[in-house]
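User: Hey, my collaborator sent me this sequence without any context and asked if I could get a structure. I don't really work with proteins. Can you help?
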Amino acid sequence: MSHAARRVLVVGIDGVRLDSLRRLPTPHLDTLAADGFLTPVEVDDDTPTMSGPCWATIVTGVDVAKHGVWSNDLSGHRLDVFPDFATRLDHHDGRRTFVAAGWRPLMQPRDGGPLFRAPSGTVHIAPRADTPEAWEECDERITEAAARVLAEDDAEASFVYLGAPDETAHVLGCGEAYETSVRRADARLGRLLAAVRSRRTYADEEWTYLVVTDHGHVDAGGHGGRSGAERTAWLAAAGPGIGGAPARVRHPDVAAQVFAALGRHPDRHWTLDGRPFAARPDAVLLDMDGTLVDTESLWLRTVRETTPGIAPDDLFDALGRSTADTAAHLHTLTGTDPATLAADLAARFLTAVQREATPLPGALELLRLLQESDLPAALVSASPRPVVDAVRKVLATEGADTFRTTIAAGETARTKPAPDPYLAAARALAVDPAACPAVEDSPTGVAAAEAAGCRVLAVPSYTPIEAAPRRTVRRGLAGVAKRELWAAGL
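Assistant: No problem. I've predicted the 3D structure and written it out in structure-token form, which is a compact way to encode the shape of the chain:
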């Protein structure tokens, strides 16, 4: 199965108040929100509620202190260091990008611009005057031109700017004419979406749609202050893996999501401030014991049988650890030879697994989801090879042994909690660990995965695991679908 070609369309509609949007009939935005989400975005306290700073934050993925755009005069910016996503993708990856806009600082070398430094292709049609009527005409021509490009060209990431609602608010306030302009912007969005759907190659593509505004307005039509009406923006998003709205979305997240939607893991030297809210993994790296199969109870029973009277803390310290590591720990408690302990543990545990191991709820469904999604999967275990092979037989009877590589204890220089097993699995699959969620049930395994740079989906078995950056915690695997997996650890 070949991956569908990934494409992203970002539509920026300037100066649309969220309360107006919620009150008005905007069927095209409503459809996107139903497929994904529409959520408030609060302009950061340090960012002036002006178009220049807000759009710079949206398209670069960094905050105002980095990109250095503090007003609608872009002079003094640092866009050479922190360029817009369309320029980054073109310059770093040779990907085709497209930008269409009428506001001059976005496109022309005046007032410190352009914000968009060097996309692959552009359309710029400035309004003939700064009036609501002229801006409606400008947006109409921009929409017409952009629709032709979206329907026929092969840009992987596109940005289309519509400015009439903002100009209308400035001149006439946020009344009836302003609301009419917002409805017209939604209709133009619909034409852009229709152009995408008309593409000859549309059936073989996966499209992510991001529609965003930069700031709000006061009732009289101005902005630039610190009121809630001015600081409340919004984002609508739909596309592969995009489900309900995250707890918080920020303007820099838009550019981060563009990269994620295209499968482009940002270079750490970019120092982006945004975080994506959905990203198709390059691969999924799965722990085995206590995550996919119910072997943790068998392992704890084996440890208890090998070391009668073991204290609970010492018992649970064995979770996620290899036989050799556990034997070394038990030696400090019993004085028994570690090699003898390790051999006894391994033999007892293998017998128990062969007789009693069963998949945990949701495990088979997750493995089938990975297979259906053509996502490479690796099994990364701290158990010895005979135990791993025994579990694979259990999974194979259910048609769920879909792993392209497996890593067992002793096959890397160090085992969990060291990162070596996860790094080895990523190397075997030729993927970046940072673009892979690791599915784990123990603190030891989580430590290993995070040390390797992986995102983490934690499903705690016996020991609690707290949520943390790049770590999502669920009660179990049951119900994990694409949206949950795409968002895990982001």
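In plain terms: The first strand starts at residue 5 and ends at 13. You can pass these tokens on to your collaborator as they are.
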